[in-house]
Amino acid sequence: MSENADGSSGREGNPEARTRREMLLTLGGVTVGAAGYGYGIQPSAGDASQWATHDGSTTDRHVEAARAIAEAVYPTSASVDRAFIEDHVFGRTEPRPGHMDGVRSAIETVDGYAVARFGSRISAHPPERRRHVLRSMGVTEAHPNPNGTAAERIRFYLLNDLLFALLTSPVSGDLTGIENPPGYPGGRGAYRRAPDGGESR
Amino acid sequence: MWEYIRGKSVVPGIAAESMLLYVGLGFALAAGAANTTVPMGYAAAIVVAMAAGLGVVSIAIGGAVGVLVHDLFYGAAGYWTLIVSAWIVAYAGSIAWLSPESRYPLMSRQRRTARSILSYVFIMVTAGVYATGVTAWLATALDGMPVYIATGRLLPGVAIAVAVGSVMLLAFELLDWTSLVGTDRSKSADRPETDGGALLRVDPTTVTAAGLFAIGAAWLGGITVLDILARDLGLFGSEQQLGEYVVGIVGTDSLLSTVAVAAFAGVYRYGELAVLLSAPIAVLAVWWYTGHRSTWTSIERGRYDE
Questions:
Q1: Which one of A16, A100, B164, B294 is CB 3.0 to 4.6 Å from B49, fit for a cystine?
Q2: ipTM, 2 decimals?
């Protein structure tokens, strides 16, 4: 598709050549069509304004994305809901100042990547594809490092926090065999249970 | 833009509408990959293969811009956008840089031979090594992902680009041979016969490409291994802990112990920095090698001419 020195498209010399106007019209039509199609099926999910709050705190979208990622990371036998994420992930005491900012930033990075490369927000994908998103980002292979690359930061702030929340709550009791992790004495029911699992008299 | 690389004409001229068409191609491929969850690296490989097969670098430039536009359009641009775009441009640019003009298939149909096709495929492999190295380095420099992970993500794209590009070359060759594309019988009479024996001869350009491949492969392999080592050693809490661990393996009071502790401590401290500094060193190595090769080649050609 070369152009002649005088700027003409060379149609006279080559009957198969297209004029610039035809090319632009074709391209414009294709672009508008593709853009309209894409805009119709996709919310502008990566829009940073949807994450923003006045005080930089956690939004519903952070919680929903974290819940979706937790479903992908946790064993299928461990079921999680929004309340679990709110209480055990975002509700716990910050181990270090700025830690929750790191968690939120990691969630936004994963969600942005999911939109760009997998077509929709992380929470809109089935769990298997969410795992694929994480693998694709290299999160599953990276070492946790709060000062490392994005993949390493996601591993440190997000995946490690989610696993910490799981393993320090009774939700993981069936998986680990520890029904009463530190901070969860188990309540009256645990004291009434016999060593063999039966009800004590 | 990019019409001339190393003084060679790569593209006869990049019309604005062509570039826009290539941008649309990149956008469409990125959107298609996202909606079908095909890895973006595979779609990028198609762009590179098209650029390589057709011999038009502007396809890659437009494709890279298309990926950028796609991610910006969805408000989801990030380091991943730059990585994909850089890989496409670096790959196609490397192919153009490594290729003699005569190796571009459609632009020089009459000079295409089995040997030139094989050389071109080898150049695609070499260019893929360099593009992967540059992009993996960039991925770390942008704080996106470690070099060893980026390398693992990008190399399958090289395999796809080489495979698709090879198929395109063979298809063009087949179509050209059957006179279905462009060349008429009178022109094909000027074309040299495919010489099976020529495959065994090594021309200076191929030797240069082999040397460049060795440098690129050594660089890519070196930074990948060094990156893995540096990040694994980084799991130790301190240099002292690492030293105690190494001494526990190799023992104490020996030269080997001293060297091993010093080597691992060096990687622990400066491994990631060394990965980042490897890029300018690789550039210097390539610059030095190509300078010497071109001198050697011109001497050799002069001898043949006599």
A1: B164
A2: 0.77
